[in-house]
Each structure stands twice: as C-alpha cells, then as structure tokens.
Amino acid sequence: MHRAPRLATRLRNGSRAMATAPKTPQLLGLSSKYLLPVYARPDFVLSHGEGSYVYDTEGRRYLDFSAGIAVNALGHADPGVVQTIAEQAGKLLHTSNVYHNKWAPRLAELLVTLTQRDGGLGFSPGTSGATAKVFFSNSGTEANEGALISCFFVLQITWCTGALKIARKVGKDRGTDKSRIVCFENGFHGRSMGSLSVTTNPKYQAPFQPLVPGVDVGVVNDIKALDSLVTDATCAVIIEPIQGEGGVNAANTEWLVALRRRCDEVGAVLIFDEIQCGLYRTGQLWAHSSLPVECHPDVVTMAKPLANGYPIGAVLMRDSIAETMTAGSHGTTFGGSPLACAVGHHVLSRLSDPQMMAQINATSVYLEERLTELPKKFPGIIEAKIRGRGLIRGLGFLDSTQPGSVVEKARSRGVFLLTAGKNAVRLVPSLNVGRVEVDTVIETLSESIEEL
Ligand SMILES: Cc1ncc(COP(=O)(O)O)c(C=O)c1O
C-alpha cells in the first residue's frame, strides 16, 4: 500500500546500505576491470549527497560546485525530488510512446507557458496562447539530434526539391541544395554521430571520422563572416548562446541578432542549444530570455537540470517547425516517460518560482562580486573579465596548463570544479547554492591558485 514513502525513506537513509557495500579499493578494482575506460576519474567513490555536498565511501565530504556538470539544479538528495521519484515509480514508471501518460503533456505545457511568461523562442515576456511544441528525449545529445532531424524534415517539405531523407545524419544524402548545417568553433553539442559532427573539437571528432557531412564551422561573434557562412545551402544553424564545455564564452547580442537576420534571409532554422546554460542557470528560463526577440531561435534544446539528474532531454520548437512533424517521423522508447516527466515537472515548477528566481539572481550577483576579487589578486594569472552570466561562470587563465591543475588542487581541498575549453575553470553549481558555499569556493580557488 505505502510503498512510495518507504522507498523515499530508504533512499534518504542510503548510509545504512553503505555498511555492507564493498570497500573503496574493491570498487575501484571492479571499475577498472569491468567498465569501459573512457573516463579519467580520481581515486575515490561517491556514495551519497545532500544539497551542494557529496560524500565518498571513506566518509570524506566535498562541496560540489560542478553539480554533476550543471545538472543537479536543486542539489543532491533533494527531498521533493526523492518523493516525486518514489511516488511516480510506485505508480507508473514507463509506458512507451504507444500510449499517453499523465506527465508528458503537463511538462510540455509548463515549458511552453514558462517560455511565454519569461520570454524566449520569439515570445516577448508575458505572451499568451499555445504556440510551441515539445519533443522529449533522454539526453542532451538526443535533443540535438531531434532538433537537427526536425530541421531536415521541415526543409525537406518546404524548400527542398528532392527527397532529402531524415537519414541524412548517417551521411547518405548530399544531393540537394539545402542540406548544410552551420556550427561554431568551441561549441559542444554531444557525442552521438549527428551532434558530434557539429562539435568541432578534434579531440572528440578525430577518432570517429568520417562524420556526418555538410557541416560548416564559423567563429562566434564574427559578424563579417556571416554572409559567406550561412548561405542558401544552409538548412540549420546550431549555437550555444553561452558555450559551456568550450570555455564559458557568451555570444554578443548584436551578433546573435545578425545571425537571426541571416537565417531568415536564407530560410535556415536557428537552434539554440541551451542544454548547459538554460533552465534558470542565468536566473531566467533561457539564456536568451533576456535578449531581444530579434535574436531568438526557432528551436531550443535542453536536458541536464530538467529532472535534476534523472535522464531527460527535450526539444522546444516554434509551431512553424512543429507542424511538419507527423506520426512516425521521429520517436524514442524511453523519452517522455511518466517518471522523467513527473520529476521534470516538479523541478521546473520549483526553479520557476519567483522566489527561487530571486534567490538565483542574488547568488549570481554575490558570486560575480566574489569572483572579480580573483583577477585583482592574481593579475598575471587570471583574465580580468569573468566569463559567463548567472551561475555559469568561467575564470580564464593566461597559461592554459593551469586550469586543470587548479581543478585538481581544489578537489584535494574538497571542492569540485570543472575545466572548460583550452584555458578556463568553470563554475556551474546547484542553483540553490548559498553564500557560504560561494565563500568556500572563492577561498579554495584562491588557495589553489596561490599554490600554482
Ligand atoms: C551545451 C551542451 N549540449 C549538449 C550536451 C550533450 O548532452 P548529453 O551529455 O546529455 O548528451 C552537453 C553536455 O555537456 C552540453 O553541455
């Protein structure tokens, strides 16, 4: 009868299970014996967390200022998230998309109405009326694949003369005039073949050549190059308004407006990948919510924080894109499950609460104030300007060998940070992080940089 609450209690009291768990060296041994070695990880095993803190199997505590790479927006083991998972798992976990479920339409409605409330996708803040659609996936890379597929599908119907296949992403179709995709240097869009093809980092791409063909690579903020970059042959342009992995670089508003204008001139679909920078990380729903509608995209992709760590991704698109997608044109087994969408609805409802937004904005101001102390203290080491906005921030280092070592030193002091691009340390904490945690991270950064 009351399975859900009992499960929630068990999840919260995870420490009880730890008593019988294997010891750290045993777990590390299993890991190296059985897991594909595609990750370079430090020698400890995380066992549980609470808020912005995580603990390893030796009982050491860490301040997680990386939030699982911009994922745990409400922190670890949030009681509301735990309860939602427990209750929904006890009712209906998965149905496949052969059937309707209660939560996918409600989460889609929330995404659209919040976009209308806060601004985005061409809506000024305060717009009303349903004028956008959502497709749910399981991850960020799948959301981008879905977005690219939508573009091909739209353009196949509206502009292309031939039968441009959705299967273009596997590199089959090259014969039509409008099939090229534009992406940008230092962008990161995921590891599946289509998303990888527009992620221009040679480290990620080189081992997997040949990739999906027909990709043109531009430089963010280069206005002069736009006309030759985005042409009549371009079907889609994909960009992160604030690059995460690539170095926490924000695109200029003026350039984004010019990019939007150029997409309209040639009839290309503009996709904003807000997988890392969206969903209130900048204090507003989208990183582009605060920008003029003249630069807004046709399609927004999201993932990471939407269900606070439970896997989910989504593509939000204007009706003009959505109207050409029909039954059977795209699909997934797991995407849009009742569990993922119930958690997404819970998380998004809390993040969009005006009080929560005010708190995110206040913490963002405080973090910026404290971060600006660092270039003053270390002028020959750190770039003067702090990168990014809100709670996606980057510290640029003049010597590109230093960010990795700062991240390691901070970790040895019990603080998780990330590198970004060639020369930055990235800070993407939980969105409910407090001033105490900000103070800790600044102190740790300061000590770690001093030790360089
Ligand atoms: C901007 C951006 N797009 C796409 C992705 C890929 O998301 P996922 O790892 O969920 O496939 C990431 C992941 O870091 C990202 O930061």
Describe what you observe in this structure.
It is found in: Mitochondrion. Pathway: Amino-acid biosynthesis; L-arginine biosynthesis; N(2)-acetyl-L-ornithine from L-glutamate: step 4/4. The chain is of the alpha/beta class and 452 residues long. It has two domains: 3-71 and 354-450, Aspartate Aminotransferase, domain 1, CATH 3.90.1150.10; 104-351, Type I PLP-dependent aspartate aminotransferase-like (Major domain) (Aspartate Aminotransferase, domain 2), CATH 3.40.640.10. The chain has 17 helices and 15 strands. The protein has helices at 3-12, 14-18, 24-34, 67-70, 79-89, 104-118, 140-158, 193-197, 202-205, 226-229, 253-266, 319-322, 338-351, 354-371, 373-377, 402-412, 435-450, and strands at 46-50, 53-56, 61-64, 132-137, 180-184, 215-218, 234-239, 269-273, 299-302, 313-318, 387-389, 392-396, 415-416, 418-420, 424-427. It has a seven-stranded mixed β-sheet, sandwiched between helices. A four-stranded mixed β-sheet has the order 1-2-3-13. Strands 11-12-15-14 form a four-stranded antiparallel β-sheet. A hairpin with a 3-residue loop joins strand 14 and strand 15. Helix 14 packs parallel to helix 17 (435-450). The longest helix is centred in the N-terminal third of the chain and has 19 residues, at 140-158. Pyridoxal-5'-phosphate is lined by residues 69, 139-141, 144, 188-190, 240, 244-245, 273, 275-276, 303.
